[in-house]
Each structure stands twice: as C-alpha cells, then as structure tokens.
C-alpha cells in the first residue's frame, strides 16, 4: 500500500503486546470491534479518533505514531474461542474492523495484522457478520479471505471526488478515485459493499453540484447503501482541525463554523435525502448521523 499525498512526515512505529483484542462495541451497527493498531498513519485532520493516544502518546500529534498489536491474531483466536463456547452457532454478533484506526493503513503491508485476524475468522468458520471500514485500496489484497467469510461487508470512506482541500485534510489516505475503484472491484468480486460519506466536509458541501456527483459515483460502484455523517466539531476536534485549517486555508474557517448550526444540518439533510431518493440509493438509518455527545468517544474501544 503506497501512501499518497504530500511528502511523508516521519512517524514512530512501536511493536506492542496487547492484553485484549476483541472489545465490546458502543457503535450502533457492531457488537464487537477489533483495532489491530493504536494510532493511524493516515492522520486525517478532522479525525475523532485522535483522542486514543492521550495516554500512550500524550505529546505526539495524531498521525505521527502507530503501535502494532503483534499478538492480535493469537488473542483473537483465544478470545473468540472462549466467547463461542457453548453456542450452537459460531456467532457472537457483528465483528467490526476498525473503530479508531484504519485496518489497511500502510503498515498493514508489512505486518499483516488485519489479514491474520481475518484468517483466524476463516479458520474458526465464524458465521456472524464481519464488517470492515477503510480509506485504503489495500483491502483488495484480502479478497481471497473475504470470499471465504459467509457474511462479510466492506465499506470505504469517501468524502469527496478528490478536490485539493479534501486531499489536504486526508493527506496520507488513498486518493478518492482509487477508493471508488476499490468499491467497484469488491462489488464485482461478489463482496457486499457500502460507503461512508463522513464527515460531510463543509467546504465540499457548499458546492452541492459536486456533492450530487459524489453520490452518483457511489451509486455506480454498486454499493448496497451509504452512511451520511455530519462533521463532529466537539472542542478537541475543533481545536486541532481549526489550528491546521487556519494556517493553510483560513478562508474556510467561516464555512466550518456554519457546520455547527442546526439550520445548516437541516438544509443539508433535505438536500441529501432528496438526492439519494433520486438515485434510489439507500441511506443507513434513513438519515444523516450527527455525533455531538463527547461521551460517545469512550465507547470506541481501542
């Protein structure tokens, strides 16, 4: 997996031994979560998950460190065996990769922790749903394993059609056109897919024609449905995001400020639901998501 974007910033890699890997999820559409890494090399400037390093990496910027959970596959085999004990079906609910890291960030090429975890699920003949969400085309490497899971679904986060500001906010993630192509390839391989359009970036939203184009492109990839999510501008996220944007794109601050108003969200919701209806594009939960509650972060297990 090749990291895209501007010249690479140095980052610290640490191999660690985790105490657990299969965590109870606080997400509405997942029962359990696996995070193969702590931290994320993609380091997107709006990311809500930056809070995960507050103890292990208190003075290190989000995107500048990644801890690799070297024993994750062994832990998964042990913990899943225990949780399946006594069950007639090999199913404990939806297992999701991942909530606070990208399971296919560049380091996955070397360490293959995500692939090894998928192999465990295949070997154990797991019957429950397995969900994946990534910003990387690297997921295509594991199509062979995905095809062996009876109930798997892969999502790609796609927030724009690749304008310069979106690339700036998602510096090291796969280019948007590559993410769209990845969704198409997964669909053609017979794997169920969805797209996560979140956060809805304010600068992009103010160009509704481009937003309509994005929705059309997603429909064309064959996704079963999409998530729509308003940007979370809770204080810690806002402080980090605005510090970056004010240096490089100060003219955008006013647009980001507007994204916090209920009026903005109501107008945007009406537009999005009208456009998705035209395209016969299903929206998860039938409406865009808005996360305001800071306490929800604590439920996104690392």
CATH class (first level) name: Alpha Beta
Strand content: 15-25%
Helical coverage, percent range: 25-40%
Based on the structure given, which CATH architecture is correct?
A: Alpha-Beta Horseshoe
CA-to-CA gap between the ends? 23 Å
Poorly predicted sequence stretches spanning 5 or more consecutive residues: 1-8, 293-302
Overall outline: globular
Report the strand count.
10
> What's the oligomerization state?
single chain
- The biggest beta sheet, please? 7 strands, mixed
Q: Record the strand order, biggest sheet.
A: 2-3-6-7-8-9-10
* Overall pLDDT level: 90
Q: State the secondary-structure class.
A: alpha/beta
Give a structural overview.
- The chain is an alpha/beta fold.
- About 35% of the residues lie in helices and about 15% in strands.
- It is built from eleven helices and ten strands.
- A seven-stranded mixed beta sheet has the order 2-3-6-7-8-9-10. Strands 1-5-4 form a three-stranded mixed beta sheet, with no helix packed on it.
- Helix 8 (about 210-220) crosses helix 11 (about 260-280).
- The longest helix has 18 residues, at about 260-280.
- The radius of gyration is 19 Å and the shape is globular.
- The relative contact order is 0.14.
Concise synopsis of the structure shown:
This protein has 302 residues and is of the alpha/beta class.
Outline the secondary-structure elements:
Elements: E1 12-16, E2 22-24, E3 32-34, E4 37-38, E5 65-69, H1 72-84, E6 95-97, H2 108-111, H3 113-123, E7 130-134, H4 143-146, E8 152-157, H5 164-169, H6 176-188, E9 192-200, H7 202-205, H8 208-221, E10 225-230, H9 235-248, H10 253-258, H11 262-279
Parallel strand pairs: 1-5, 3-6, 6-7, 7-8, 8-9, 9-10
Antiparallel strand pairs: 2-3, 4-5
Helix pairs in contact: 1-3, 6-8, 8-11
């Amino acid at each position: 997996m090749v990291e895209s974007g501007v010249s690479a910033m140095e980052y610290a890699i640490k191999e660690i031994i985790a105490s657990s890997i299969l965590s109870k999820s606080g997400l509405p559409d997942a029962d359990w979560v696996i995070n193969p890494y702590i931290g994320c090399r993609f380091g997107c400037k709006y990311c809500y998950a930056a809070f995960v390093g507050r103890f292990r990496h208190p003075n290190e910027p989000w995107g500048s460190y990644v801890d690799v959970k070297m024993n994750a596959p062994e832990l998964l085999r042990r913990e899943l065996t225990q949780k399946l004990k006594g069950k007639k079906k090999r199913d404990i609910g939806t297992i999701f990769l991942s909530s606070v890291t990208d399971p296919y960030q560049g380091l996955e090429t070397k360490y293959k922790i995500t692939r090894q975890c998928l192999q465990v699920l295949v070997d154990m003949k797991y019957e429950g749903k397995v969900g994946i969400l990534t910003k990387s085309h690297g997921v295509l490497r594991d199509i062979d394993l995905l095809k062996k899971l009876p109930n798997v679904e892969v999502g790609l986060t796609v927030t724009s059609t690749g304008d310069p500001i979106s690339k700036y906010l998602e510096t090291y993630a796969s280019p948007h056109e590559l993410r769209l192509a990845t969704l198409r390839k997964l669909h053609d391989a017979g794997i169920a897919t969805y797209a996560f359009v979140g956060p809805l970036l304010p600068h992009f939203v103010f160009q509704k024609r481009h937003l309509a184009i994005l929705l059309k492109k997603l429909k064309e990839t064959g996704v079963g449905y999409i998530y729509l999510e308003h940007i979370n501008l809770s204080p810690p996220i806002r402080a980090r995001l605005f510090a970056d944007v004010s240096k490089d794109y100060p003219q955008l601050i006013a647009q980001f400020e507007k994204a916090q108003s209920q009026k903005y969200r109501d107008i945007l919701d009406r537009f999005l639901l009208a456009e998705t209806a035209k395209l016969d594009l299903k929206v998860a939960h039938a409406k865009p998501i808005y996360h305001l509650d800071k306490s929800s972060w604590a439920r996104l297990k690392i």
